[in-house]
Design goal:
The chain is mainly alpha-helical and about 425 residues long. It folds into two domains: about 180 residues, no CATH class; about 220 residues, no CATH class. Helices cover about 45% and strands about 0% of the residues. It contains 17 helices and two strands. Helix 9 crosses helix 12 and helix 14 packs across helix 15.
Length: about 425
């Protein structure tokens, strides 16, 4: 089924007939415990970095409140397992996300619909559903197994009710008519941005499907921050070493974390809000409550976090802020380390949605109306696949790249004039 068919045919046909080839797995010799336990033969249909129009269709239907009746019984048909060490095809994961929400075990409102990316929060939701239904808690759903049968028993009546409600309201019966005008992908804060939406842990794909990590060079303290307390050379080097130990680190990702750390004052506490390295107490609490950050007790103050814990939380933040493009592993898809750092600092300082809006606005200043600013329900849109594609196109040309960095800095200064030195740094007019 080609992209045109996926965007126009009835959703059940799309969910049942989308072309997903068989996976071939080989055991990893190192016997890892999680998804990277397997070496995946690259297959775009199961690659979480691949744009899947079938998932786009599901998200668009979800935003209209029509996914249950339009997806119908096709939602119960998955091609392979979904769970910690399963295939986790995007369409399969999106179906399970939908079923879990409909059964009351998961909340998709915080993700603006099904994403098709599996992560620990979904495994926890599966186990909770299994526990509530007397099923062995393995955190996995497989085709026609006991968990899928229980999901079907719980959700199928709701599908029937949704279909009946649509028909009684004289909604057109041809599902394809309802979805033929599906919008292009609007691929669906936690650390610093004020007023960020309450969001659960993101769906983060297996890092092994992304570009291999590249060398991480020594990065000097940015010139505008060299006199800042908390950025003494010993602390800067310690942070660099801890970031460098993150698994599968890409050089673009390291540069972003170094730049953000410097921008937030390094190893220091903000006396106004108690933030440590930009990590705020209330945001940390929210992340712990949502099980996005694990191994840290709720109520822990940011100032009490070790440098190592903060390094881990930085990555976890970007797993969340960029969950629609594959989480922090998406840094490996951006070759321009400076432009990537400018976007990263915006997302960190202004939040997943607030920062995403600023990036969109900067792109639209160069190419008007390239990106929508709001989704079908009126919500502001984050940095998603559509925005990433536009961003990559803009930074590919040296002229438009610099114009984008200027536009982004100008937007940020207008929002927070007192932080102009920080934002001007990310214009990257000269090496710092």
């Amino acid at each position: 089924m080609n992209r045109s068919e996926i965007l126009t045919r009835p959703l059940p046909d799309v969910l049942l007939e989308a072309d997903h080839d068989d996976l071939e797995f080989e055991p990893d010799a190192r016997g890892r415990k999680h998804l990277d336990r397997w070496v995946r033969k690259r297959n775009p249909a199961f690659d979480p970095t691949f744009e899947d129009p079938a998932v786009d269709r599901m998200r668009e239907a979800w935003m209209r409140g029509a996914l249950l009746d339009e997806g119908a019984d096709a939602l119960f048909e998955i091609r392979a397992g979904v769970g910690d060490v399963e295939a986790n095809g995007r369409v399969d994961v999106a179906k399970i996300e939908t079923l879990l929400e409909s059964s009351g075990a998961f909340d998709l409102n915080f993700l603006d619909g099904p994403t098709g990316f599996f992560a620990a929060d979904k495994g926890d939701a599966i186990r909770a559903f299994q526990r509530a239904n007397g099923i062995s808690e393995d955190g996995t759903v497989r085709p026609r197994d006991a968990t899928m049968r229980a999901l079907k028993a719980a959700v199928q009546p709701k599908i029937r009710q949704a279909i009946a409600a649509r028909e009684s309201a004289n909604t057109p019966g041809d599902k394809s008519a309802l979805i033929a005008q599906a919008a292009p992908k609007q691929s669906p804060q936690p650390v610093h941005g004020a007023g960020q939406s309450q969001q659960p842990p993101p769906s983060v794909p297996n890092r092994t499907t992304n570009a291999p990590p590249s060398p991480t060079p020594i990065i000097p303290v940015p010139a505008y921050r060299k006199q800042a307390r908390g950025l003494e050379m010993a602390k800067w080097n310690a942070w660099s070493q801890l970031i460098g130990r993150l698994p599968s680190l890409h050089s673009t990702e390291k540069r972003a974390y170094m730049e953000v750390f410097a921008a937030e004052g390094g190893d220091s506490v903000n006396p106004e809000n108690g933030a440590m390295s930009g990590i705020k107490n209330d945001t940390l609490d929210e992340l712990i409550q949502k099980q996005f950050v694990k191994g840290i007790k709720r109520g822990t103050k940011a100032k009490d976090l070790s440098l190592n814990e903060r390094a881990r939380i930085y990555r976890e933040y970007f797993d969340f802020a960029m969950n629609e493009v594959g989480g922090s592993s998406a840094f490996g898809r951006i070759d321009d380390v400076e432009a990537a750092s400018a976007v990263a600092d915006t997302l960190f300082r202004n939040g997943r949605t607030g920062g995403g809006q600023m990036v969109r606005e900067a792109i639209n200043k160069l190419a008007p109306e390239t990106l929508a600013m709001h989704g079908a329900t009126g919500k502001e849109l984050p940095f998603n696949e559509t925005a990433l594609a536009a961003f990559q196109k803009v930074i590919a040309d040296p002229t438009t790249r610099q114009s984008f960095l200027h536009a982004l800095a100008d937007i940020r200064i207008k929002d927070s004039p007192g932080e102009a030195p920080r934002f001007n740094h990310f214009r990257f007019q000269k090496s710092s």
